[in-house]
Write a structure and sequence with these properties.
about 375 residues, 15 helices, alpha/beta, single chain, three-stranded antiparallel β-sheet, about 35% helix
């Protein structure tokens, strides 16, 4: 039996945070029903590349789910949805604050039908405040939260767009945890509740280091001015002979010492303890790493316990032996679509593992079953 078998989730969300959250629940056995508008459904269905008429984004994020189409602007659609609420445990939605109230399907209405229902709302800035109804995307949330200012080159250089959707992905994980907490409470008390997950709020909490510096001393962390953003030689990125890069994460002195020995630069071991030496150490490491290619450094540092790794592109990460060992790429065999690949399960549980039981659904594929 799967861990979340018997939990029914109505997923009214689109694109990334909500669907990623409900995918995790579905992977562990929850019955996730995507509630989609009848014509287009989740926008991600149309995102290229395609496998026949399936978008890969949709295949990745909506596996193990069902699809039901409802026009929530119609009275019939509204009533059908509330009938589903009667038998559900969780609703996940990503509309702007106030939209579900206008449609007549918000938590207040749903909780009268089903007191145990849990409503998880994912929004950009939360349900209150001057930005509550403002539209935005990940780049906006992380920029206002101070994350973008810590990414990129120092010395007044241009900030860099983070390479992953940090607010989106972390909000999805936070929503999943909040849902499990609320389910536990509902199990004990018979009482559901509302969950408010703001992508902006989640982005703010991703920086405990910056918060500690600011609240403790007033220091404002920015790109290049602290140990996590390139100020230190032993936590930095270096270019190799072939124009690739390696990351150095020798925060502890034992790892730094090991690296210096590989470089045959024992003279640098104790210098790392004085912050004033770091510009010199960075200069020296820049010269040292330029002597060999990235693959040569992989071989030279293998098994030396230095916390130095190559900076891989995504294709290299997919093909890496560690990725294969962890089963982080799934090969799916589908009667209609043939063979395709997608990312595996990051959450490894020994007794109740995740599983891929069903490919992502066609739009409205399960209308007959549920309506």
């Amino acid at each position: 039996m799967l861990a979340l078998e018997g939990i029914r989730v109505l997923d009214m969300s689109r694109l990334l945070p909500g669907p990623y959250c409900t995918m995790l629940l579905a992977d562990f056995g929850a019955e996730v029903i995507k509630i989609e508008e009848p014509r287009l459904g989740d926008y991600s269905r149309t995102f290229p590349p395609f496998l026949k008429d399936f978008g890969y984004w949709h295949l990745q994020l909506n596996r193990n789910k069902k699809s039901v189409t409802l026009d929530l602007k119609s009275e019939v659609g509204r009533q059908k949805f509330l009938e589903l609420v009667r038998t559900a445990d969780v609703v996940v939605e990503s509309y702007r604050p106030g939209v579900l109230k206008k449609l007549g399907v918000d938590y207040e209405v749903a909780s009268k039908i089903n007191p145990k229902i849990i409503y998880c709302s994912l929004s950009g800035y939360g349900s209150k405040g001057p930005l509550a109804k403002q539209a935005d995307h990940d780049i906006g949330y992380v920029s206002l939260a101070g994350i973008t200012a810590m990414s990129g080159e120092g010395n007044g250089g241009k900030p860099a767009i983070p390479g992953v959707l940090m607010a989106d992905m972390n909000a999805a994980l936070s929503a999943g945890m909040a849902i499990m907490i609320a389910l536990r409470h509902a199990e004990r008390s018979g009482e559901g509740q509302e969950i408010d997950i703001s992508l902006y709020n989640v982005a703010m909490t991703l920086m405990p280091g910056a918060a500690s510096l600011y609240f403790g001393s007033g220091f404002v962390a920015q790109r290049g001015n602290n140990w996590l953003t390139g100020a230190n030689a032993n936590y930095n990125i270096y270019r190799t002979k072939d124009g690739r890069y390696v990351s150095v994460g020798c925060l502890e002195k034992k790892f730094w010492s090991n690296l210096c020995r590989v470089l045959q630069r024992e003279d640098m071991i104790d210098l790392v303890e004085d912050q004033q030496n770091h510009p010199y150490l960075e200069q020296q490491l820049t010269q040292e790493f330029a002597k060999h290619t990235m693959s040569e450094w992989e071989a030279l540092l293998a098994g030396k316990d230095t916390c130095v790794t190559p900076v891989f592109n995504f294709d290299e990460a997919v093909e890496a032996e560690q990725t294969k060992a962890n089963d982080m790429v799934l090969t799916v065999e589908d009667e209609e679509l043939g063979e395709y690949q997608q990312l595996g399960f990051a959450l490894k549980l020994s007794k109740t593992p995740a599983s891929l039981r069903k490919r992502a659904p066609r739009l409205g594929e399960d209308n007959k079953e549920y309506l």
